[in-house]
Structures are given as C-alpha cells and as structure tokens.
Queue: 2 jobs
Job 1
Amino acid sequence: MRNERELRLAGFRRVAGLDEVGRGCLAGPVVAAAVILPERHRIKGLRDSKMLPRARREALYAQIVDRADAIGVGCVEVELIDRVNIYQATKHAMHQALERLPLAADHLLIDALSLREIGLPQRSIIHGDAISASIAAASIVAKVTRDRICDEFDRRYPGYGFARNKGYGTRRHFDALVADGPCEWHRRSFAPIRQLLAGEQLPLDLEFVVLDEETLEPS
C-alpha cells in the first residue's frame, strides 16, 4: 500500500487501482477492473493474479468483493477489439470500469498504461500488479471475471478448450483451429486467425503458449 499511502497523505481519498486481462489471447473479450480499497483493507496475500492458483484467486476475489469500497468492471467484446485494435480496446475497457465504480475515484494507479484522456491525476506503474495492492486487487477481479466468461464459452464451444486455455494460443487450441476453423469468439484481427480465414498455412516456427499447471497462465 506504499503508493496508496503516499497519495492519501497528499489528500486523495478514493485511489482506484486499474488492471486488465486478456490482451494476448486469440479469443474472447478483454476485461478491466477498477478497485478502491479501504485505507486498512485487511486482505492478506494480494498479488498479481497471474501468480495465484485458481482456488486462491477465487478466495481473494470473494474477499475483495466483500471489503472493497468500490469495484467497477469493463468488458470489451471481440467485435470491438477487431474494429479498433487490442490497445484501444483495453483502454475502452478501463474507461468502462471507471464509469461503473459506484464511488468516483480521485486518483488512479494503472498497471503500465496511461489514460491521459481521463481528467484525473494518475500514476502508471510498470508491473503494478506486483507492487500495488489496489492494482493487484483489480487484476484479481478482472481475471476471475474473465475466467468465468471463458468457462461459459467452453460449454458453448467445447472443442477449443477455453475453460483451460482461456483463449491463449496453446497447441491444443491451434489443433482445434486447424481442424474446425475459428468460432465467433475468435479475434479475426489477430494474425493466426486472419491467416487461417484467408486459407494460409500457419508459420512452421509458430510458438505455442505453455500454461502453468497451477495458475493456468502462460509460464
């Protein structure tokens, strides 16, 4: 909470951490979350969601929902990602998350990005989800929200393994894409999907994502 304490000493009272998940996936939405933690949040073990086993993420998510002063979530679907590019879609999801906060933030802590078009003071922190409790909480909320969306789409499109790969380009995911083609949930603007739809052969040196067995995140 060092960054949060500094800002509260400077007079800010509603410091929102912002983070997103899903930028590097071949399928599904990009999800962002904004979280305002109380000054003494008493949530033990907040850290980058990508470093946490799923059961631990879910437990922390429940605590954040119960104890945070405010939470907002933004979700930008594949259609907009393909239309405006993933970077702009990520910023749009963050805008949504801020707009959906039940309390207006007066300062932002953002993982690696800047939202200069928003008229709020802000601090962009590289690897912020590892060193800011508010950003870590936002990363957990965004990750759990997106994982649940992936579980739903796995039931709708069971051949791609979305419940496990979360839309990342694992070998099994690419095998399904080659065999069955993309579904409506795939991002057509991303190179491998675009190549498959054009009838092109995927590169021989294509790198597959390898998932960590505990976190189900790229290792």
Note: The chain has a mean pLDDT of 94.
Job 2
Amino acid sequence: MSDAQSLTPQDAGFYLPAEWAPHAATWFAWPHCSETWPGHLREAENTIARCVSHLARAPESISERIEILVQKPSDADRIKRILAFWDTNLTRVHFHPFPTNDVWIRDYGPTFLVRDDNADDGLGTLALVDWRFDGWGGKGATYYGSHDGLDNQIPKRIAQTLDIHSFEAQLVLEGGAFDHNGAGTVLTTRNCLLHRQPSSPETAQLQSLESFEEAFARYLGTKHVIWLDGVDFSGDDTEGHIDNLSRFVAEDTIVTVVGNSKDDPLYEQLELNYQQLKHARDAKGQPLNIIRLPLPKPVWYNTTLEGKFGRWNYPASYGNFYIGNSCVLVPTFSDHNDAQALEILTDCFPKREIIPIDCSHYILGQGAIHCSTQQQPAHIASKPAFINAA
C-alpha cells in the first residue's frame, strides 16, 4: 500500500463543508420501486422532477450539475420527458446507469470531502468517504431480498465515474444519521447510531460512542460531536435520523422540530431534544442559537407497508429540507403548519429562495427530500473529472 493510499482524510487535509457551501452537483437516484410508493410511484417521480427542475434553474454564476442514477441507460429518455414537462434546464442534467434498490442516496451514497491545496500525493482536491451501508441495521434483507447490498456499491461507482479517491471506512453509517456545520461540529443521535444492533460481529466493536467520534474526526475532519438522545418518529425505520429532527442552518444555528401541543405523542421527546440543544456547545465551546420548527400534523394512510395492509403513520417533518446553491427545497404536507415552517426557513436563508415541495404522497416512502439527495461540494479541479457521464 502506498503512503497516499494509507492516509486518512484527516491526514491528507480533507474536510466536510457545510451543506450550504457551494455545490458542484447534487446527486439523486430516480424513483423506480413501486413497493416504496404503493399506487403512487408516478407522484414520487414528479416530486423528484420538481426538485431537479428548481436546482437546475440556478443562475450560471452559482449553477450546479444534477447527477441522476437510473436503472438502465434507456430510462434516461423517459425521465428527460418528465423533466421537460417541469421546464428543467436539461443541459445541467446527467444520467448514470447504476442500478439501485431505492432512492435514499443520502444514506447509501458517498460523503464528499474537499481540501484547499492539491498536495503532491495524487489525491486531488475532491474525494469521498465510502461508509458501509447495511440496510438500516439489516432491514435491507427484508426489503430487497437477494438484491440487498446493491446500494452499498454506489459510492465506489461514483468515485470511478468522477475519477476521484475513495476512502473506505469500515464503519456502518448512513448519511441521514449526522449533520454538520462545516466548522468542526457534528450533530447526531444516540438512538440511531449507538442503540441499533450491529449487523455482524465484525462491526460490533466499531459501534461505540468513542468509535464514532474517532471516525467522524478521521474521515470528516471534525473536532466535536453533539450527541442527542434522539426521537423515534412513528413509521421511521431508521431509528430517528437527525435529518428529520435537527439541522444546522448556519455555523452557530440549529433548527429543531417541536410538537404543536402536549397532546402530540412526540411532544415530550421533542422538548427534551430541544433542551439538550439549548445546553449543547460547538467545537469552539460556544452555545448555539436554537430555533423551534413545528411539525406537520400526523400523516396517516390506509395502504400497504412492508407487505401488510393497514392504517399507517408516516414520518412527516419539515426538517428534511435540502439546501441547494440558489434555493432551499422544503417538504410540505398540505398542512396548516406549512406556512409557518416556510416562514421560519425563509428567515434562516435570506439569500436563497425557499421552494415548497409537496411531499404528501412522497412520504409514503418513509423519507423526503434530504433523504433523496447528496451534495457534491465545489472544489479546485486538479484533473479531468467526469470520464463516464452519460
């Protein structure tokens, strides 16, 4: 193994920018699994099409590419017709025939890193971390059967496409399980990372608080972790990803979802989460500004979930927004709290357009916009990148 290959991202000077830092691209996996949205796959496609369309409209000076994973090359023509209906700038859209089980690229996709200087080690200024994805604690085997493990290959394929270095992390971690402020502080939950059973004996010793803190430092270049107890959203099989609960919107500011009344079954858990944030400190030892973000009313559907028909509650949250270069895509749910949530996020992002994206049907998949996106930060181009884009 060469010296460069044995380096960790931290050793090599790579770090994780905040989501609001400039993007070179946003990555999606196109919706295709009818079991994820029973009877509503077309609505799911249109939800993602609207997201792509808005991101692709950014002015040239702050534009970003849209990279879409599809099941096979021939899918691109049909998807282009859907995107054209939504008046998408197709010159900014690229397709990649990388089969996936589902759309949740935030969880199984790579975490992109940058560094400011192109050191003489052949690693360039853009790289990625390839975490291990085990289908949310082994649930993938139930959902996807013999295709379980397919999504775990996506980071390697993206690294090959972009011709960038991939740092392989022997740690199970989903992208939706942590948030970050771009200044050394990670935000995550114990109930998702620590309380979930490891999928195999070989990873058991890696899944402790200390191992995660060391991994965040080693692979993301971070200095401090804020551990929250977490909240178990009804219908959420991730054990409470942070991107449905609390999000950085600035280096020193977090929005966190709260219950609307004491009758809300999540009210006490969310209030505890809020109080933990109020007492938290960042990597510099400074307190944080904490902004309360309402929850929509519970979303119930009579439908089939995991092979069983019944009346199911789905994990709707305004916290699952995505920050693009020119806009913020915010899930809405035809709820009276939509307007208040949009107003709060407008105040948080005064230089970006706040775009409501109706996720009333998309939430059938048990996730929303942030779960379906992965940002690729802008970097200093050091060599030709895009060798295999369709």
Note: The mean pLDDT is 90.
